[in-house]
Specification:
Layout: H1 3-30, E1 32-33, E2 46-48, E3 54-56, H2 57-60, E4 65-70, H3 78-91, E5 101-106, H4 113-123, H5 132-135, E6 136-139, H6 143-153, E7 155-156, E8 158-160, E9 163-165, E10 169-173, E11 179-184, H7 191-202, H8 213-217, E12 218-221, E13 226-229, H9 231-259
Parallel strand pairs: 4-5, 5-6
Antiparallel strand pairs: 1-7, 2-3, 4-10, 8-9, 10-11, 12-13
Helix pairs in contact: 1-9
């Protein structure tokens, strides 16, 4: 192979790699979870609970706290996520309100306390042990507070029309407000994982995330209202790797050809 052909191929692959990386970064900037393990919530996060009380989230955290970020009128994964959380809480041998608490926060600034109260009355009925009244709070807030909270925990959402595209994730906080664990999922959470996350948070100890594949291999399909395999991103990576392998083989073959003496 001629040197000019190899240089042209290298240049094409380089441009393709830049395009693929730029597309991936752009997509991630719009949607995803960027873990901020060991970071601590600031003292400036003021939200309104289901009874119109103004609450400083940092000051309200006095025990391990499970943070669920949703929006109450979500037609997709928010309801299954809260159902899955409630099911794990019910099956756990931990006591809500004593061993831990749950903060469900809407990231839609248009939603108000009456809607939060309605959602609370729905989901707290699914948990029969513990103090659901004081142990599980549903919050709403203004756009500034919401944006700050999402930024501090690394939770990126994208609004499309009247709806949001967003990941399904629970964030566990220690009594000091430190982020200690991310639990990924949209319909089911293991009671054991929930318990271990609470125990770690109580000890102010962060734990590794077991399931991170959702972030890279799956995207949310707003029409099907579920996570689907991201063919474009995965296939693009595979094509790039295959092209690089082919280029390497051709380069080696070209060098061997040059070393072959003429007859």
């Amino acid at each position: 192979m001629k040197d000019i052909e190899i240089k042209t191929l290298w240049r094409s692959l380089f441009i393709f790699a830049i395009f693929l990386n730029s597309w991936s970064v752009t997509a991630q900037d719009e949607l995803g979870v960027y873990e901020h393990l060991d970071d601590t919530l600031s003292s400036e996060l003021i939200f309104t609970d289901e009874l119109y009380n103004k609450v400083n989230l940092k000051q309200a955290i006095d025990k391990p706290t499970i943070l669920s970020l949703v929006y109450y009128e979500c037609p997709g994964i928010c309801s299954p996520l809260l159902n899955g959380l409630a099911e794990a809480m019910e099956k756990s041998d931990l006591t809500l309100g004593k061993d831990y608490q749950v903060f469900t926060v809407s990231f839609s600034h248009t939603e108000k306390p009456p809607l939060a109260l309605k959602k609370k009355s729905t989901y707290t009925k699914l948990v029969t042990h513990g103090d659901t009244d004081k142990g599980w709070h549903f919050f709403t807030g203004d756009s500034v507070s919401i944006a700050q909270l999402l930024d501090e925990v690394g939770f990126k959402v994208k609004k499309e029309g009247k709806e949001y595209i967003h990941p399904g994730t629970l964030i566990v906080l220690s009594p000091s407000g430190k982020i200690t664990r991310y639990l990924y999922g949209s319909t089911y959470f293991l009671p054991f994982d929930l318990k271990m996350a609470v125990v770690e948070a109580a000890a102010e100890r962060s734990g590794p995330t077991i399931n991170k594949m959702l972030k890279f291999c799956f995207s949310y399909d707003p029409e099907g209202k579920k996570y689907v395999f991201n063919v474009t991103k995965i296939s693009g990576t595979i094509i790039l790797l295959a092209a690089l392998m082919l280029l390497g083989a051709l380069t080696i073959k070209g060098r061997k050809t040059k070393k072959t003496p003429l007859t």
